[in-house]
Specification:
It is built from 9 helices and 8 strands. With 295 residues, the chain is of the alpha+beta class.
Length: 295
């Protein structure tokens, strides 16, 4: 006797059966329906069902080829039009409208002379048939004109025209926080108000001599750096040392001696980490380093 036949619906489906069934269902869903005129009866339905049709697989393949050709053609057109602007990795910039670029941070360079307006946190540049490069950091903006000329309007209201081969940096001088302006020293004896008396007082010891040195530097700007450095050598642990070092740093900034001013800022940070003005000194320190590099 033959064994009873097991129907497919009664047998547990294998993994391959389930995958094949899923593929068939997916393929079936992708076959578009054909319109049938029911008024012609079953003969019409059978005629439509048995009519040879273009393979849907061929249609999909043809569509994919057409899309690929379109992408290649578009890429060829884009490559035939060189970019006007090249930006470094990590650059933060926008082009809100034609003829305007905003550069928040990073480096940007035009590939050919163009006419546009560039805006950074520190300046506005108006280029007319100009090729240029611009770099923005927290401390400032540097612009180099490679061809043509450009007008730069700084945030402080100043204006400068750069020609081919010229470069500029903005701000051109560091910004000093109001908190770094040195406070008034303690008052000396009322009778010690002229330079001769201050000179005599500076030869002494203690706070009175420190204050005398400080006041002499304020009254004689041309000798300020020399006098305040002498004071720091004589009284390295003096009460008035923070004020003298700040005054010395600002005097060096005033004289555009940024490298020396940077050293004084670093020494202030090292010696007085808890001073409430140390964050402002650090900010000035960074500006001075950038200005020194960009000389």
């Amino acid at each position: 006797m033959s064994e009873p036949t097991t129907r497919w619906t009664d047998a547990p489906p294998s993994d391959s059966d389930e995958r094949r069934a899923a593929e068939l269902i997916s393929l079936t869903r992708e076959i578009p329906p054909s319109p049938v005129e029911l008024s012609s009866g079953w003969d019409g339905v059978l005629a439509v069902a048995t009519k040879p049709r273009t393979s849907w697989r061929r249609l999909v393949l043809a569509g994919a080829i057409a899309a690929l050709v379109g992408i290649v053609a578009t890429s060829a057109v884009m490559k035939s039009r060189p970019r006007e602007v090249i930006v470094a990795t990590g650059t933060q910039w926008q082009r809100p409208r034609e003829g305007l670029i905003t550069l928040q941070q990073g480096r940007l360079e035009t590939t050919r002379p163009i006419t546009l307006q560039l805006v950074t946190p520190h300046l506005e540049l108006v280029a007319s048939a100009c090729r240029f490069a611009a770099e923005v950091v927290v401390e400032g903006t540097r612009v180099t004109v490679l061809e043509g000329s450009a007008v730069v309007r700084a945030s402080d209201g100043s204006e400068q025209t750069l020609h081919a081969g010229e470069a500029g940096r903005w701000p051109s001088q560091p910004k000093v926080a109001p908190a770094l302006m040195v406070s008034e020293p303690p008052a000396l004896r009322p009778e010690c108000s002229d330079v001769a008396c201050l000179e005599a007082a500076s030869t002494g010891d203690g706070l009175e001599a420190e204050v005398a040195f400080f006041e002499l530097g304020r009254r004689q700007p041309a000798r300020a750096v020399e006098l305040w450095r002498t004071s720091l050598r004589r009284f390295p642990d003096g009460v008035f040392v923070p004020e003298v070092r700040l005054a010395l740093m600002l005097a060096l900034v005033r004289d555009h001696r940024y490298g020396e001013a940077t050293s004084e800022a670093a020494e202030f940070e090292r010696a007085f980490p808890d001073d409430p003005r140390v964050d402002d000194v650090r900010a000035l320190h960074r500006q001075l380093e950038w200005l020194e590099r960009e000389r």
